[in-house]
Design goal:
Shape: globular
Distance between the termini: 74 Å
CATH class of the domain at 156-263: Mainly Alpha
Number of helices: 8
CATH topology of the domain at 156-263: Transferase(Phosphotransferase), domain 1
Structural class: alpha+beta
Radius of gyration: 22 Å
Number of strands: 11
Largest sheet: 5 strands, antiparallel
CATH superfamily of the domain at 156-263: Transferase(Phosphotransferase) domain 1
Helix content: 40-55%
Strand order of the largest sheet: 1-2-3-5-4
CATH architecture of the domain at 156-263: Orthogonal Bundle
Amino acid sequence: MSDKEIDRFDVKVDQERIREKDRDTLKVIESVFDFQTSMLIVKLMNKGIIKDIGFCISTGKEANVYHGVGYKGEELAIKIYRTTTAEFKRNWMYVEGDPRFKGYKKGTYSFIYTWARKEYKNLKRMNSAKIRVPVPIIVEKNVLVMEFIGKKERAAPLIREVNLRKPHKIYAQVIDFFFKLHEDATMVHADLSEYNILFYQKKPIFIDVSQAVLLGHPYAPVFLYRDIANINRYFGSLRVDVIPNKELYEQITGTVPSPKIMSMEF
């Protein structure tokens, strides 16, 4: 066999390996996701966004997040919102007061697609305000592709899973997030706690922002006060000298929280 024939044979072998890997990937997709979601992932593969999808990074009531790889070898986080969950029924209040989604429909599928778009838009808005969140790449119905926070398939841990050496410094960075979010992004996270903050390269990274609302939302003050209370509770448990809830709210907004804001629960 000549050198040229060997080269051609090697190319054929490589191509067959790629096809075999693609078939294996599609088998995994079909075994884990419903037909419609599988087709969306295939669509994103054909668009050159996703090259491969692998293990599950995290599971939640509303969505699972999977590790993926792009065509440039970049690691991706692929968030897939469930289309068969009742959890979304309680989330209408986060969308109904948002002027960006005035025309949304209340059907289950339509709402879930809106919820995914909302997280995409919120991530873009926060990223533009220089707030450290996963950079969004694309959203297709119930599939959101974004930056993977971690390295070499190892996802960054939640802040609650880390033994913080200097928790007071991390607390200060989270407080800075409150101010940037309010002043630069004109938003409230609306579900902030130690369960929605990653710890990567010694800094907090904020995630799960689908419920984040603009300051004009009727419940924005209540959500902000709740976020402050959650963060102070957590860092207070680490013996950090936290800024009292009421005082921090006033520093951020320039107004004193009313008794109704401080007492309302959802």
